[in-house]
Amino acid sequence: MNKNSESYKIAIIGSKDQILGFKALGITAKAVNNANEAREALFDLNSEMVEVKAGEGRKKYAIIFILEDLALKISQDDYKKLTKEALPAIIPIPGIKGTSGHGLSRIKKMVEQAVGSDIFG
Fold first, then answer.
1. How many domains does the chain divide into?
2. Is 121 among the domain residues?
3. Report field, pTM of the whole predicted structure over 0.85
4. Is residue 38 included in any domain, yes or no?
């Protein structure tokens, strides 16, 4: 496969014990120990590019999953910087402790922005 036909990638950020299994699925797994490391990993993954033509590039990742407990600790300012472009989509997912509702709330907001209304009711 040449660089021009390389597909988008998926990544996940979380504690090592919670994300290790995702590697077997071909997902880039970034193990972090705290929210500050998670923030840095988000910015690093968000900035990775793939060259599609000479001098032209695109984002490497289409989706970055992050465990909810870490996502809740990312400041609103940082979150706005990370989500100002369409890609990658940053999706909070529940960890082993269960859901806080943050992930569903973020998806609801993303869908509302895309379609112009709250379809989840």
1. 1
2. no
3. no
4. yes
